[in-house]
Amino acid sequence: MSDSLAIYLTLGWRNLWRHPLRTALTAGALAVGIAALTFLSAMNDGWMQQIKTNFALTVTGHVQIHAKGFEQSRKLAQRIEDPAAVIAAVRHVPGVALIDRRVRVSGLASSAGASGGAQIYGVQPRLEARMSRLASFVDKGRWLTDKDNHGVVLGDGLANSLEVGLGDKIVLMAAMPDGDIASEVFRVRGLMHSGVMDIDDLLAVVPLKSAQRWLGLGRAVTDIVVRAAGFEAVAPLAAQMRRILHGKGLEVLSWIQIDPMAEQWAEFADAYTWIVLAVVILVVLAEVLNTMLMSMHERVREFGLMGALGVMPVQMFAMVVWETVLLVALGSLLGFALGGGASWWFGDKGIDLSHYASAFSFMYMDPIVHPLLRAQSVAEILGAAVFGAMVAGLYPAWLASRLEPAQALREV
Amino acid sequence: MALIEVHELHKHYASGAIAAQALNGVNLSIERGDFSVLAGRSGSGKTTLLNMIGTLDRPDDGTLVVADHDVLAMTVAERADFRLRHIGFVFQAYNLIRVLSARENVAYVLQLQGMPAKQRLAEADRLLAEVGLQGFEDRRPDQMSGGQQQRVAVARALISNPDIVLADEPTANLDSHTGEALLALMRHLNEEHGVTFLVASHDPGVIAAGRQLYRMDDGRIVSREDR
């Protein structure tokens, strides 16, 4: 540490404790603000992480590979004829945790008494239970097994509209690749409730082999679904897969490209947090500014004395800024310890908001939130506080640097 | 050339409709090794003149040369640096930085000059001993008497080995015994170490101690007496 910085810090720290109560109150107010911001930010990050995870892993997966144009057309004419070859080509891309295949088609579901539109998913039951959350949504009956050739799991809203229950038969109809309509009978093995309307009111899940046979697909699928080791792995993983599959008539889409809604929620939540952060920082820094102005006015004579001794205006300026930074650092560290500690504690235990949050399950929220302390959020909050301190300290520092020693020494 | 040359120095202050002529054509010459006293009633211009010589304030007119430097041609930063290297100050009160110990107060000037910590603290201890404050090095101002604080201020004024020490009413806040002790210390430093002092005071003891006595009235030096 340079000698001049050492004296700024020594003087700044000791000056803060000239009025311990005032310093404690100001630092305390700052600490409460920073603690609240840290905890709020951790709640938000935890929530958003949960939403992103739930959103991506409810059905979509982190990355999907389709025949080029399928995501737009949703027609079986655009399909992957040899999924095993594609999977073999991308299986060892770093960051791949799991690869699954599906058939996805829009169709019609009919029972003896009613009919309605359905999104039909052909899945590999055991693998799908590890890939997505669909199996976990089954609250009546059971999830499919590899032996369920004619079993179907329905969203409970779809089952209600078809007026069917466990063990009942339904007929699924969909267009084959050549445009002909094919139908197949399935028996209801389970009912899902997710809180997500697109799942509960539309989804019919059948075994992959049954869907391939019924729709005349052979070994072809519409989706190869990839689960990545984490969200941070998604972008590089997708990029490498695009390079590997370039020129093969395939498209590689990340979960954000398939449906940007969750990412937009996260961006909205970030913007909201920044607004709250700005308001809290402004209020608290007004208090810091007030404290520093009071402190400065009490020490006008001392500033005059320092000026007389040969302290340069720029040194006077730096001294007051450093004093402000120390005050804010004190409050910020205390606040971070409180807010970070609470986030860490509840991050492990979780906060049960089921009384409030069950209505938001359609937004992929879990009722128990685990606050998540992200280094980036902490750096943003502390950075904003220190930046604010510099700004709050500028005016008193400028006043101190402008004092004429002779005039300042006359102050009582 | 004299250490300080003041020629036809003028200064007036205005506050709203009220104006005061603080200096009205002051001429003064101080030699190295002098122990000079500016005497005069309150408002006669003593402090204003000290402030001008100490580069704490600027005159409206006149010339002022201190230690061969035309201080009126200097910028704000140059004047601060000049004070740091050439002038020591002892004020009437509130002389010390409250949050620093006696040692730190004295060493502060050397720190501003960039002297390494070990060397400047040793120098501060030596000067505190010189002014009779051995054992008081770690005390803060509020743990010392007024006389002790003024001794610390004298030590601080001397530590950079300045060309001149300017003292403004240094005994005004002290009891007579403490004031006499401080005056004796300043005289000792002047006589034994050749330190130049210019002291503004209306204390009869200080006035009697001056080897050059300048009497001021209405912003002018009205008499000079060499003893």
The SSE order of chain A reads HHEHHEEHEEHEEHEHEHEHHHHEHEHH
Count every beta strand of chain A, where a strand is a DSSP E run of 2 or more residues. Answer: 12
Count, helices of chain B: 7
Overall, the morphology of chain A is elongated
* Rg of chain A, alpha carbons: 31 Å
Q: Which range does the strand content of chain B fall in?
A: 25-35%
What string gives the helices and strands of chain B in order? Answer: EEEHEEHEHHHEHEHEE
Mean pLDDT metric of chain A = 89
Structure description:
The complex is a heterodimer of chains A (412) and B (227). Chain A has two domains: 3-55 and 263-410, no CATH class; 63-229, no CATH class. In chain A, 57% of the residues lie in helices and 19% in strands. Chain A contains 16 helices and twelve strands. In chain A, a hairpin with a 5-residue loop joins strand 6 (169-175) and strand 7 (181-192). In chain A, helix 11 (261-298) packs across helix 13. The two termini of chain B are 21 Å apart. Chain B has 227 residues and is of the alpha/beta class. The mean pLDDT of chain B is 91. Chain B has one domain (33-53, 74-226): Rossmann fold (3-Layer(aba) Sandwich), CATH 3.40.50.300. In chain B, strand 7, helix 6 and strand 8 form a beta-alpha-beta unit. Chain B is built from seven helices and ten strands. Chain B has helices spanning 46-53, 76-86, 102-112, 117-130, 146-159, 176-193, 204-209, and strands at residues 4-15, 18-30, 35-39, 61-66, 69-70, 87-90, 164-168, 197-200, 212-217, 220-226. Chain B is 36% helix and 28% strand. Chain B is globular. At the A-B interface, helix 1, helix 12, helix 13 and helix 16 of A face helix 2 and helix 3 of B.
Task: Walk me through the topology.
The complex is a heterodimer of chains A (412) and B (227).
Chain A: H1 3-16, H2 20-60, E1 63-67, H3 70-73, H4 83-90, E2 96-110, E3 115-123, H5 125-131, E4 138-141, E5 151-155, H6 156-162, E6 169-175, E7 181-192, H7 197-200, E8 203-207, H8 208-214, E9 223-228, H9 231-244, E10 250-254, H10 255-258, H11 261-298, H12 300-309, H13 313-349, E11 351-352, H14 354-357, E12 368-369, H15 375-402, H16 405-410
Parallel strand pairs in A: 3-8, 5-7
Antiparallel strand pairs in A: 1-9, 1-10, 2-3, 2-6, 2-9, 4-7, 5-8, 6-7, 11-12
Chain B: E1 4-15, E2 18-30, E3 35-39, H1 46-53, E4 61-66, E5 69-70, H2 76-86, E6 87-90, H3 102-112, H4 117-130, H5 146-159, E7 164-168, H6 176-193, E8 197-200, H7 204-209, E9 212-217, E10 220-226
Parallel strand pairs in B: 3-8, 3-9, 6-7, 7-8
Antiparallel strand pairs in B: 1-2, 1-4, 4-5, 9-10
Helix pairs in contact in B: 3-4, 3-5, 4-5, 5-6
